[in-house]
Amino acid sequence: MVRGLLLALLCWASVASAAQKVDHLSVNQVVSRSNEPLNLTMNVVGDPFVVQQLRFYLLQNGNRYPLARQMDGDFLIHLHSQVPARGSRIQVVVTSLFQDEPDKLIYFNIDLEPASGGAPTVTRKVAQDASVAKATEVAPKPKLRKQELKLCPMEGRSFWSMARETAPALGVGHYGAMLALFQTNPECFPGGNPNQLICKELRCPDPDSLREWQDEAAAKARFKELMKASGK
Description:
The protein is an alpha+beta fold.
């Protein structure tokens, strides 16, 4: 009986592990041209949690610029940049918050203005390229000062659920969103307690806060430390 139980648990673990992956990722459509903010859609098929961990960047001049994302149904992601895509040939880099293979990247070479004059062309490659993996992540400088950051509305939601629903648009994981919001709005959490939200609206995090919490595992560990320190 014990042997059978162990075998069942092993099979369940194998199935769960196999399910947590991205089965398909491709560029669906590019709707921008060179020297314009990048605007494209991607098809994605995979475990929803793992898809949420994917992060997308425009790579140019050795820097990675985060792409804002918005899910459209279960299989389509809209991506756009805040900076122009310089030149007719660009790269979009896809990585993950999971740290098991931090140098493994999927990147798409996109020719925005092919010689044939048709639609942009795309080629895909998976690489472990140290020069690409170590590229500096640079977010565009915010146009507004911190006190003028746009608002992330609560709309009657709890801090937990609001952060979870806002995280994909911010380009971080659930815990990363909570920490970035927490750091950007210290006056809304008396005593530094994440459970004591007193504000009805929060300022959206600035790029510096979002870059600090790109690693979801580190963000989760830090959030648990804050909760423990607050006695919760």
